[in-house]
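Re: that backbone. Tokens:
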């Protein structure tokens, strides 16, 4: 690995806003040994987990930044990049580039309360989730196929905000916010907990006129989380989600257009209309319903089985066509945990499987000023994914924890085109793949641990890659395959906490995006990449919480990512670009912040992010600008009469008023790389909650 040097962070552990100040602030000092993570189904403390895992709490997601978006919180994590080219349009990358994702979330497996949110076709409608209903996030970096199936880009575990069974508490909250560029929103939450049941219902509305021309959006979300303890051995949960989302897509600009007026939408040319004229937008309605059953056979054996169904109605008037798509998904997952040996060498076996099926009807029409015109293509696609897995974990003498896991993964597609005669039917199957993972962790005293892991990854092309917006079915696109080696150390030295990981990931048959003049994309395999990186987090508590102190919590933190990603064996036409930096990956990203809270209820968060220049095309002829982003939030939170909680905040985004693009179009035809983000702007909000 190349020589890297950096220091780094630990993310804050969250607090419940409705708790009294002294109790709430004390929970902020929870140590690594007490932070339990669900990654790899071990349910161990982070100190005892042999994997690179970062967490985001409810405070990181909903208090640190005023904007109701997943983007700024995710971008405080080392090795994680999230884009939002226009409000509501998410892209997510974990230890990799976004060259596979012109839009949407791909090659990252996402679970919502243990239910697969990523469908069998490899697509995740993450923008259907309201950040205000999320209570916790775990990000597992590197290939995690030994437990979570196909994918080389990592795994995200989302948890909703809900009461606990037996809590005997009820809570209601209302909130409102307003901000620049017509931003406004409301949220309503009610939670109830009894001896054998806990129910949480959340409704949220958000709308914005957008910073750029043709970037208006609105979103309505309804979430349901209900858990019932049937008896001491059985628990049943119901998870429901409905989202109605619309966001306009202004389109990419070339450099001259970007510098002349970054707020304009993509203009018309002599050969193609512009975004405004074609009313380019996304209309997306998503419904998701899942059931979870947990059964404790004994103190040593328990099983969790989930099933789900999903429906998505998707429409996209684009520059050159009008796409209408309907997705229907079903699937399930079962996991059994068996504590095989309790004494001597404690050993746990985790085994199970996951199966998903997705049926998609995809039709393309001509686009006549935002209205569908002549039918161009009428396609049906069926995707099926399955995985079976097993993992042993043993606690050995001398503070060593050993993990060995393996999975069998299978992916298949069926494509049928009805708009031509005779009807074209093309199957596309991939050979089953076995993905092993081994890891060792050594505890060094009570406060430090070190780990090493070797894992393999496999990522079949998604439905949106085998049948992209360019309109043809690509039966020759091959899956990505890779091997990842990483070393890490994390721990606590008095007030100082740290988490440091170095890795090398070798990826073969890398999938990259290409575009035609109209902006429609297609995908090819591009040789291999060699990806080396160093990720670090650190935190220092300047003030340790004590009930009598005015300053209850003051700490500084830093998150740094250093990468050296290079193409290998990559021929682009007549040009060999081997040795070039991988497109879309900044060599250096540094996030630094300070958090402060007082006994009176005032709090403040300041966050600065530095993003170094990175290539926008595979030839490395065009690079992004350096971005320096400053955000600050001040607020007041107070518990009144032990039952009521009032919170008000004011947040400033891009306070340095940088002209930057939070979401470049990589390898874009005609140099249309740029999607300008808002300049300096403010957001304010208020929340009122009551317990009874």
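Recovered sequence:
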């Amino acid at each position: 690995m190349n020589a890297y040097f950096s220091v780094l962070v630990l993310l804050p552990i969250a607090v419940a806003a409705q708790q009294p100040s002294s109790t709430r602030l004390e929970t902020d000092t929870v140590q690594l040994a007490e932070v339990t993570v669900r990654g790899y189904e071990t349910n161990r403390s982070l100190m005892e987990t042999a994997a690179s895992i970062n967490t985001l709490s409810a405070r990181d997601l909903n208090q640190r930044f005023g904007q109701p978006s997943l983007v700024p919180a995710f971008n405080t994590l080392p090795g994680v990049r999230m884009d939002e080219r226009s409000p509501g349009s998410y892209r997510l990358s974990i230890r990799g580039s976004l060259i596979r994702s012109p839009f949407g979330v791909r090659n990252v497996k996402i679970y919502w309360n243990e239910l697969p949110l990523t469908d069998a076709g490899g697509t995740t409608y993450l923008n259907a989730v309201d950040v205000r209903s999320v209570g916790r996030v775990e990000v597992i970096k590197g290939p995690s196929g030994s437990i979570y199936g196909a994918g080389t880009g990592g795994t995200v575990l989302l948890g909703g905000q809900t009461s606990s069974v037996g809590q005997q508490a009820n809570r209601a909250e209302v909130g409102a916010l307003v901000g620049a560029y017509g931003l406004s929103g409301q949220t309503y939450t009610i939670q109830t907990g009894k001896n054998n049941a806990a129910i949480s219902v959340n409704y949220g509305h958000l709308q914005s006129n957008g910073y750029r021309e043709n970037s208006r959006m609105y979103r309505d979300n309804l979430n349901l989380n209900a858990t019932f303890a049937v008896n001491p051995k059985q628990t049943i949960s119901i998870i429901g989600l409905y989202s109605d989302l619309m966001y306009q897509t202004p389109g990419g600009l070339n450099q001259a257009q970007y510098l002349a007026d970054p707020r304009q939408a993509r203009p018309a040319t002599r050969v193609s209309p512009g975004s405004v004229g074609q009313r380019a937008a996304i209309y997306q309605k998503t419904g998701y319903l899942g059931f979870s059953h947990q059964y404790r056979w004994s103190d040593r054996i328990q099983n969790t089985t989930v099933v789900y169904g999903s429906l998505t109605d998707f429409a996209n008037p684009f520059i050159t066509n009008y796409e209408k798509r309907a997705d229907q998904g079903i699937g399930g997952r079962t996991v059994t945990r068996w504590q095989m040996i309790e004494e001597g060498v404690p050993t746990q076996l985790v085994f199970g499987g996951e199966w998903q099926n997705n049926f998609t009807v995809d039709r393309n029409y001509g686009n006549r000023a935002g209205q569908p015109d002549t039918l161009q293509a009428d396609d049906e696609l069926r995707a099926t994914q399955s995985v079976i897995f097993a993992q042993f974990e043993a606690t050995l003498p001398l503070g060593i924890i050993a993990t060995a896991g393996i999975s069998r993964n299978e992916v298949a597609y069926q494509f049928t085109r009805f708009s031509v005669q005779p009807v074209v039917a093309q199957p596309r199957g991939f050979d089953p793949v076995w993905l092993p993972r081994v890891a060792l962790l050594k505890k060094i005293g009570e406060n430090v641990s070190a780990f090493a892991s070797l894992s393999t990854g496999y990522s079949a092309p998604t439905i949106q890659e085998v049948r992209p917006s360019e309109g043809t079915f690509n039966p020759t696109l091959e899956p990505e395959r890779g091997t990842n080696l990483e070393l890490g150390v994390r721990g606590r030295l008095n007030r100082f906490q740290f988490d440091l990981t170095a890795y090398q990931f070798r990826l073969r048959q890398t999938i990259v995006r290409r575009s035609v003049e109209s902006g429609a994309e297609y995908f090819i395999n591009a040789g291999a990449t060699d990806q080396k990186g160093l990720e670090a987090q650190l935190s220092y508590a300047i003030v340790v919480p004590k009930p009598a102190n005015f300053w209850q919590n003051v700490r500084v933190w830093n998150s740094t990512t250093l990468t050296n990603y290079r193409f290998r064996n990559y021929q682009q036409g007549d040009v060999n670009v081997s040795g070039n930096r991988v497109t879309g990956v900044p060599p250096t990203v540094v996030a630094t912040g300070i958090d402060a809270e007082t006994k009176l209820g005032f709090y403040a968060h300041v966050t600065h992010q530095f993003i170094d220049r990175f290539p926008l095309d595979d030839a490395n002829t065009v690079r992004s600008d350096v971005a320096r982003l400053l955000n600050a939030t001040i607020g007041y939170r107070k518990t009144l009469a032990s039952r009521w909680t009032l919170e008000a905040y004011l947040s400033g985004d891009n306070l340095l008023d940088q002209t930057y693009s939070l979401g470049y179009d990589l390898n874009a035809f005609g140099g249309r790389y740029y999607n300008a983000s808002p300049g300096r702007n403010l957001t304010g909000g208020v929340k009122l909650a009551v317990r009874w």
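The mean pLDDT is 88. The first strand starts at residue 36 and ends at 37.
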